[in-house]
Amino acid sequence: MKRRDKILEILKNKKEITVKELSNIFNVSEMTIYREIKELEKEGAIKRKHGSILLNTGKEKEVVKVPNCPICEKPITRAHPYKITVEDEIIETCCEHCGLMMHKKLEDKEVSALTYDFITENPISALNAFYVVGSSAIPCCSPSVIPFASKEDAEKFKKGFGGKVMTFIEAYNEIVNNMQISMKSCCSHGETITFSIKEIKKSS
Ligand SMILES: [Zn+2]
Ligand SMILES: [Zn+2]
Q1: Is the confidence at residue 167, as pLDDT, over 90?
Q2: The CATH number of the domain where 29 resides is what?
């Protein structure tokens, strides 16, 4: 049996193996094994994962598990979700709206929170950000809460899309007080108004 066939045979029984282990089994250099492995990988017979070699069964499609927002249960799809750090845990919510709702739940805990400027996507401490609340732009949950690093940017955004410019605490009070009655229904999507960042940038 050729060495490459033996490798496949071993993998059938063992499921995964490292280059080092194979080099020991065949008593050849790791480089030799490596070359063989590369060939097998090119043919699609095997694949490598976390430093191990596995048979490529083709079955195992990587399932990307999207976490859900702990407030509205929507999948969190944004590149930069709202992040709350409490003790050693990081809680992510789908958007600032749900982030503020989460703050309500964590009311008596010491937390820090990170948000991202809507235009530049630069991280900002949520406490220092300015928010446009209730504008016609609804990227996620309604009423939307859209963060900006500077008050001027928030004001410019407001000119185009309405809403109110608020500090963290003002936005918190606005969302939390309005939402206590019907927490789940807040996130049901009404009419979604689309907008382009380019346009916003132009008008600012
Ligand atoms: Zn949510
Ligand atoms: Zn949301």
Answers
A1: yes
A2: 1.10.10.10
For tokens 């789908």, the residue is: 94
Q: What is the DSSP string of 114-167?
A: EEE-TTT--EEEGGG-EEEES-S--SSSSS-EEEESSHHHHHHHHHHH--EEE-
Give the Å distance between the CA of 181 and the centre of ligand 2: 17
Residue 29 pLDDT > 50? yes
The CATH code of the domain that includes 122 is 3.15.10
The neighbourhood of ligand 1, an ion, using CB within 5 A, equals 69, 71-72, 94, 98
Distance 109 CA to ligand 2 centre (A): 22
pLDDT for 51 = 82
- In sequence order, which residues have a C-beta less than 8 Å from that of residue 75 and are 6 or more positions away? 66, 67, 68, 69, 94
Q: How much of the chain, in percent, has pLDDT values that exceed 70?
A: 83
Say if 117 falls within a structural domain.
yes
| DSSP symbol at 51 | T
Same domain, 50 and 87: no
> Of the candidates 121, 120, 202, 204, which has an alpha carbon nearest to the alpha carbon of residue 155?
204
